[in-house]
Design goal:
Layout (H helix, E strand, L loop, with lengths): L1 E4 L8 E7 L4 E9 L5 E2 L2 E4 L4 H20 L6 E8 L7 H13 L5 E2 L8 H8 L16 H20 L8 E5 L3 H12 L3 E5 L3 H11 L2 E2 L12 E4 L8 H6 L4 E2 L11 H8 L3 E2 L2 H4 L2 H10 L4 H9 L1 H15 L3 H19 L2
Length: 348
């Protein structure tokens, strides 16, 4: 395994590029902050157009993990890793062995788990090379149901703030992405009486929610223009941008995808259009709480309780933003940064 340290113009503590010629592995590990504890964040397996694109993504994702872990006061920092390539490869086992060796080279500075394109079964392969891994089979396992429940509670909090009700019956929710998290979210929305309009680039994912819940579907490009009360991005990041904001016909954005805003200024653009944005790392923190059963020894009941507390966190953030006249993403960032600042001071 060849490991190269990358220099970036960001505040990241460490960014590494790994390459293994035998397995064909290429990937990044980015550690944004270890002020609160070891950096924790999942492994994403995606076919990026270039290594530069993958580097940009891992930098954004790892920063988001720092804030996601800091906001609820977890003793964990923020990091992320990426495997570059087609996640449908038959060479999967060799790649995850290489990835496990890459993670292990950091000696516990970074702890990984599953993410987009990876699974608990993949983490079992990683575990053969390092103990610095969570989300294992028979332990915390698949975090998707917890993540989806947190997003559902975030949606309820947003509706409470906007319309003074937790009831979703009769509302229309446009869901982008019906994979692991999106499927569970669609199920919860359906059971709550909401109408769901869904889009996914994967036909099998879409067919599943149509067959089980009778949802209406549109093409991936049409999902942004659906007339609905709520838009829930549950696929990849950067979907809230100059182009899509002008297409939106909704009043709330609350979803599971990381880094939904292509740029922080897009939070201001949503605010100018009176669209309530629930910061993604607040809404999608349920997966981390699930992982705390392994990382911190929590009982499952405590993890579930923390997931439900996302409702209160969202209300606090949107109320603070409203009172201060700032965007919700800025209000969330300030809370997270204050906790990091206090921790840094306490460490001298």
């Amino acid at each position: 395994m060849e490991i190269i340290e990358k220099t970036t113009n960001t505040e990241h503590e460490k960014v590494l590029y790994g390459r293994d010629s035998k397995s064909g592995y290429r990937g990044f590990i980015a550690i944004h902050s270890t002020v609160l504890g070891p950096a924790f964040g999942g492994t994403r397996f995606w076919n990026y157009a270039s290594e530069d694109e993958a580097l940009t993504d891992v930098l954004r994702l790892s920063r988001g993990m720092t804030y996601k872990n800091a906001l609820p006061g977890l003793p964990l920092g923020g990091g992320k890793s990426i495997i570059i390539g087609d996640n449908r490869t038959p060479n999967r086992e060799a790649l995850f062995h290489a990835h496990g060796r890459f993670v292990d080279s950091l000696g516990g500075l970074y702890i990984t788990a599953e993410d987009v394109g990876t699974s608990p079964a993949d983490m079992e392969i990683v575990r053969q090379e390092t103990r610095h891994v969570a989300g294992l089979l028979g332990r915390s396992g698949d975090p998707s149901p917890y993540t989806a429940r947190g997003v559902f509670r975030a949606i309820q909090a947003a509706t409470k703030f906007r319309w003074n009700t937790n009831e979703l019956s009769g509302l229309t929710v446009a869901v982008q992405g019906c994979g692991h998290v999106g499927y569970h979210l669609v199920k919860m929305l359906h059971e709550a009486g909401a109408k769901v309009v869904a889009a996914d680039v994967n036909d099998e994912n879409l067919a599943r929610v149509v067959n089980e819940f009778g949802v209406e579907t549109v093409s991936p490009g049409e999902i942004f223009g659906v007339r609905a009360e709520i838009f829930s991005p549950c696929a990849l990041g950067g979907v809230i941008n100059d182009q899509t904001i002008s297409e939106l016909k909704i009043q709330i954005v609350a979803g599971a995808a990381n880094n939904q805003l292509l740029d922080e200024r897009h939070g201001e653009m949503l605010k100018d259009r009176d669209i309530l944005y629930v910061p993604d790392y607040v809404a999608n923190a349920g997966g981390v709480f699930n992982g705390c059963t392994e990382l911190l020894g929590w009982e499952p009941a405590r993890s579930l309780e923390k997931v439900d507390q996302i409702y209160d966190s969202v209300l606090t953030i949107v109320e603070n933003a409203n009172a201060q006249g700032i965007t919700t993403n800025e209000a969330a960032n300030r809370l997270a940064e204050e906790r990091i600042r206090r921790a840094r001071l306490s460490r001298g």
